[in-house]
Design goal:
Pfam families: DUF4336. The structure is a single chain. The chain has helices at 41-50, 64-67, 70-76, 97-100, 167-172, 178-182, 189-193, 205-222, 232-236, 246-251, 257-267, 288-293, 327-338; strands at residues 2-9, 16-25, 31-34, 54-59, 81-84, 106-107, 122-128, 135-142, 147-149, 274-276, 284-285. The chain is an alpha/beta fold. It has two domains: 2-156 and 246-293, Ribonuclease Z/Hydroxyacylglutathione hydrolase-like (Metallo-beta-lactamase, Chain A); 167-236, no CATH class. The strands form two sheets. Strands 1-2-3-4-5-6 form a six-stranded mixed sheet, sandwiched between helices. Strands 7-8-9-10-11 form a five-stranded mixed sheet, covered by helices on one side. The model is unreliable at 301-317 (pLDDT under 50).
Length: 345
């Protein structure tokens, strides 16, 4: 099993984290590629050095940041069979996969297992909820290495930035620019304005990289975190374990909690000892118990707050998210439900 990581920018921002492709050699010698990344010359050269033909390209999600690399990868390996999660969609125009450059794709289906399912059994989440934008993710179990492969369902936040990120890009976020000053937490405007603009209040380069990385993580996880000036406490609340990223935890999974819990139950029937997500740290030493713990916020199905938003139950293994950091995501979730874009199961 091999992992290929690249730097991946988010949307129209200059915030970046890592994105991961996993390659597994099947028993017959061919290569099985999970969540393809950009087929750069370096990536293609590394793939060729593995030996064997790329026989299967697997898109395990609907998500744009993974789908975007599938068409160019299929052009590099036209003989490979292409497998995709069910109910693919695009926005703002509903374009079928052939118009995106993906032809003859086969849908991943537990009821009609692909020919490699004996080596890599699968569990499909969805298509579930979210109105015209169904959430889908397919998990796989590589029995030979006892590894669970997921995409975005869970992550493990490393304490230091991934090596694939350029140090200069990470250190950029150590600077106290105007956006950081606006996310000043409980500080007064005058106190925020008095901060050194260039991040010179942190002299050590490693410390600047750490602060930049912590700020990047909070922006990725919360979009609009409460305190970017001192990101340490909020950062610590999501590190050191498998977690469901706040964006998914707040905006997606509460509305499809029954489907998610069934999916988690099915996955926990596998005897894995590590989890390999498509972002952040990986592989992560974790088994079914740790994986299930990441989803304990979904317990208490049916509970809602006064505005109809499903309430999180008391968190056991999964961390309690800082209330002030999740405020913007909570407001967005309420708005999506009120206009009917998201309807709970």
């Amino acid at each position: 099993m091999w992992s290929f990581e690249q730097e991946h920018g988010l949307g129209f921002t200059n915030v970046a984290t890592n994105i991961r492709m996993t390659v597994i050699r099947l028993a017959a010698g061919g290569l099985w590629v999970h969540a393809p990344v950009a087929p750069t010359p370096e990536c293609l050269a590394a793939l060729r050095r593995l030996g064997g033909e790329v026989e299967h390209l697997v898109l395990p999600t609907f998500a744009y940041e993974h789908k975007i690399y599938l068409p160019p990868m299929t052009r590099r390996f036209p003989a490979a069979r292409v497998w995709v999660a069910p109910s693919q969609w695009t926005w703002p125009l509903p374009l079928p996969l052939p118009l995106l450059g993906v032809f003859n794709a086969e849908v991943l289906d537990e009821a009609a297992p692909p020919p490699w399912a004996d080596e890599l059994p699968l569990r499909v989440l969805g298509p579930a909820g979210l109105g015209p934008f169904p959430f889908t993710e397919v998990a796989f179990f590589h029995a030979a290495s006892k590894t669970l492969l997921v995409t975005d369902a869970v992550v493990s936040i490393p304490s230091t930035p991934p090596a694939v990120l350029a140090p200069s890009a990470v250190e950029t976020y150590a600077r106290n620019n105007i956006f950081v000053r606006l996310r000043r937490g409980a500080r007064g405007l005058a106190a925020a304005a008095a901060l050194p603009a260039g991040g010179t209040d942190v002299a050590d380069a490693d410390d600047r990289a750490l602060r930049g990385w912590q700020r990047i993580v909070l922006l990725v996880l919360y979009f609009v975190p409460f305190d970017l000036i001192d990101p340490g406490p909020a950062f610590a609340a999501t590190t050191g374990r498998l977690v469901v990223a706040p964006v998914v935890r707040i905006l997606v999974f509460p509305s499809i909690r029954h489907s998610v819990r069934r999916w988690v139950d099915a996955i926990c029937g596998w005897e894995f000892t590590s989890v390999l997500p498509a972002h952040f740290e990986g592989p992560v030493p974790a088994g079914p118990a740790e994986f299930r713990d990441a989803f304990t916020f979904l317990e208490g199905a049916g509970d809602t707050t006064g505005d109809g938003v499903p309430a999180e139950a008391v968190s056991y293994g999964s961390p309690t998210l800082p209330a002030k950091d999740r405020r913007a995501l909570d407001a967005l979730a309420r708005g999506l439900r009120r206009v009917g874009v998201v309807k709970p199961e």
